[in-house]
Here is the input.
Amino acid sequence: MKNLNGQVAIISGGLGDIGQAIAHELAQRGAAIALGDILPPESAPTVIQELQQWGQQARYDVVDVSDATAVTDWVQCVEDALGVPTLIIPNAAVVTLKDIRTITPVEWNRELRINLDGAYHLAQAGALRLLHHHKPGRIVFIGSWAAHAPHAYIPAYCAAKAGIRTLARCMALDLAPEGILVNEVAPGWVNAGLTADVWVQQPERRIRALAQVPVRHLIEPAEVAVQVAHLCDPDNRHMTGSTLLMDGGLSLLST
Here is the structure.
């Protein structure tokens, strides 16, 4: 299926499990891929080669999404090399395992700068280039069910993801007349990425998490990627300002 031929996808947090899965899915569907992350360039060649095997152009840039100027420069570099990014995927995130009593102001600020500000910087910079070129596009934020379900041990993450949800809705309302659709994919427990990092530190949480999920399955990164691709599909012309919640029914048990 090559329904994304001619599209250029830009993905922050691109070397993480979910970022790589999204890149592979979009490349298979015909999109050129630009990945950004904070890891050094020598971390990327294998990933880039895997993407190029689908016959697509691919590149990697080191970028700190909390730096607005760096993000703007990155978007311009991608435009110069691959074309205007039409599929914008703010995905970069970190998590701090501390409750509200112990998380420090430095930790809180760092998490919001990356998870919320970083998502905003990429979404805004990408949208401005689309507007400049009078091109339609798709912005898909990688959110979380934690945006509406409080978790006492990750308050900064919850706050950042709640901010992303409202940011997506605000951008969707503003950009809809220009053919730029903005949505969020909100996974539950993903068996990789930040969630897996939490489980490495606290393995008992994985056991409890699996028991809590009504469908009794954890989410794989490739499953998240398929939902992102669905929202990027040019034939999907009416879904904007929406949250595609894929949490295995967790939200049925939480208010």
